[in-house]
Structures are given as structure tokens and as C-alpha cells.
Amino acid sequence: MKGGYQDFKDLLAYKKAFEQGCRIFELSLSFPKEERYSLTDQIRRSSRSVCANLAEAYRKRNYLKHFQLKVTDCLGENSETLVWLDFAKHHNYISENVYKEHIELNEEISKLLQYMYNNPEKFGVDSKP
Description:
The chain contains 4 helices and no strands. The chain is mainly α. It has one domain (9-118): Up-down Bundle (de novo design (two linked rop proteins)), CATH 1.20.1440. Helix 1 (12-28) runs antiparallel to helix 4 (96-118), helix 2 (36-59) runs antiparallel to helix 3 (64-90) and helix 3 packs antiparallel against helix 4.
């Protein structure tokens, strides 16, 4: 049990990212059919990819650079999700309140991921070269 966690599913960042992916899936069910192969697919993929990359990061925590690369991928996918939320709001597919709720969760995930990147030793990563 490295870093006090038994599994990547125990990480708060994973739990929040999983919540985001599930909430976005439900939200995207109401998007117009013409968005099916663009906005709908893209926002679902990017939001779910945060979890998948975080699982990989955790499994690669024996190697600092691999861990940080995968956490950086998580940050990138989370930022992409933010962009798709902006498009959904701009086209009035979601309300201002729903948008704000999702943005707050997205920002919280970013902060957690940035903490992981900056403090790899707290997650069982040997940060010595």
C-alpha cells in the first residue's frame, strides 16, 4: 500500500473525476442529435479519459516521470472537458446554473490533479532520480 492508498479508486481526484464523467454522460443525453458525433462524443470521451489516465498514473507511480506525464494527461483532458462545457453553455444546451456546477467540479479536479503532480511522494512515488 504505497502512499496510504490501496487502489487508484481510493484517490479523491479519481472519485471526483468519475463523478464528473457520470454527470456529464447524463447531461449529454439531452444534447441535440446533430451534436452526437461532435460535442456529445467529445465531452464524454474527455471527461472519462481523466479517470482512465489517472488509473494509469497510479499504476506507473514507481517512475516519477511516467507518473507526472499521466497526471499531465489528466489535466489536459480535464481542460478539454471545460472547453466542451463552454460550447454547451454557449449554444444553450445547458443552463447557467448547471454550467457553474460542472465548472466548479472541473476546477476542483484540476486542483487535486495539480496537487498530485506537485507532491508525487504523497502518492507513493519515489521522486529521487
